[in-house]
Design goal:
382 residues, Nucleotidyltransferase, domain 5
Length: 382
């Protein structure tokens, strides 16, 4: 199985011509559609990256095929790897050179339309770690994100999933206000379970601050004063607070994925994932959570699942998606009643447990009885 991971590296804007990168991205858009357009005032070596090799689309698999003309399409680039023992791997004429001797990455003529123009950026620790794990940085991509130049490095590794031990790691993905719950199961018995949540008081405080600033900005806009010095300053502060919210959630999601994957590797566990984000969205609506706060609570949850799958594949951890309901009794399969403090109780058999723990009980039941017997009846809501 071929596994891939990618990292984004921000390039210095003063050394990278944004307009030039936009032109390269336009050529990549055409390449996706099978066109070849040779631009006279652009380096041939760069254009050959798109057109010179027959299976050029193989280098585009890491991007998204543009659904419309003039969509921003990242430019695929070959890489040259220079190792500490002096050996080289890759195309010597590649525009991206990873020099492990000097711990730098050299970009040749992809940042500015000047002959032999080279930009050097420090080698990220991420690259060294992926190489030490047996990966190879075969491809790179350059593009813009929020009008800022970035370099994406793609690590590739061939790995076979290991044979699971007697451990199972069940992960129930919900909105951040309820948390992402995991349970470690050994031989059909729960060893440990824990709901993971970011610092919600901090997130809620930042959201309330952004709403206060937005209301003040709206007042200025109604008066026609939003383009004044005060209005512009207020708008910058609003964007700053919003970026901070999503940055904190993104950082928390990345760290949580890392811990869960390490836990699975340590126990050689089979990972069971319950991705029920749409049901979480309906639950937030039923709880009458404001629309803006719903968006915050759901932010980065899909990215969490994507990061989790990417790292599980990279390390050869076997995983599968399975429905683990939280409103159906794992003992008698009757619908549960929610009590205060998110406690679920069954009026039929007397079963009672925290709502976040119900999916883990279903994972245990799945381990004990097999997939054929214990599938719960379909319900529209959790």
């Amino acid at each position: 199985m071929t596994a891939r991971r990618a990292v984004l590296i921000k390039l210095p804007r003063d050394k990278c011509d944004v307009d030039y990168v936009k032109r390269l991205m336009a050529l990549a858009n055409l390449a996706y559609r099978g066109y070849e357009v040779w631009v006279p005032n652009m380096p041939r070596t760069i254009q050959h990256q798109l057109y010179d090799f027959r299976d050029f689309k193989d280098s585009l698999v890491f991007g998204t095929t543009p659904k419309r003309w003039f969509a921003e399409t990242w430019v695929p680039l070959k890489t040259l790897r220079i190792y500490q023992d002096g050996s080289m791997k890759g195309d010597k004429g590649a525009p991206v050179a990873l020099d492990f001797e000097d711990d730098v990455i050299r970009l040749r003529q992809v940042c500015r339309n000047e002959h032999r123009y080279v930009v050097e950026v420090p080698m990220p620790r991420w690259v060294i770690e992926r190489v030490n794990e047996g990966g190879d940085i075969k491809y790179a991509m350059i593009g813009l994100e929020n009008d800022e130049p970035y370099l994406a490095l793609v690590a590739e590794r061939v790995v076979e999933p290991y044979q699971p031990s007697n451990y199972m790691l069940a992960i129930d993905v919900n909105a951040w206000n309820n948390g992402i719950t995991w349970g470690l199961i050994r031989d059909g018995r729960l060893v440990k379970w824990k709901p993971e949540r970011p610092n919600l008081s901090e997130i809620d405080g930042l959201y309330d601050l952004s709403m206060r600033l937005s209301r003040e900005y709206g007042r200025l806009k109604r008066l026609g004063l939003h383009r004044t010095v005060e209005g512009r300053r207020l708008w910058r502060n609003i964007k700053k607070v919003r970026r901070k919210i999503y940055a904190k959630l993104r950082d928390y999601a990345q760290k949580l994925v890392h811990r869960l994957v390490r836990k699975a590797l340590r126990h050689k566990a089979l990972v069971i994932i319950d991705d029920m984000i749409e049901e979480s969205r309906r639950e937030l609506i039923e709880e009458k959570i404001p629309r803006g706060l719903r968006k915050v609570y759901l932010a980065e949850t899909r990215r969490f699942v994507k990061l989790l799958i990417t790292q599980l594949r990279w390390y050869g951890v076997p995983y599968e998606f399975k429905r683990l309901p939280s409103t159906i009794c794992p003992v008698c399969q009757h619908e549960l009643t929610q009590l205060p403090d998110r406690t679920m109780a069954c009026t039929n058999c007397g079963f009672k447990a925290p709502r976040d723990k119900i999916p883990i009980h279903w994972a245990i039941k799945s381990h004990q009885e097999g997939d054929g017997k214990n599938n719960p009846p379909p319900l529209e809501r959790r």
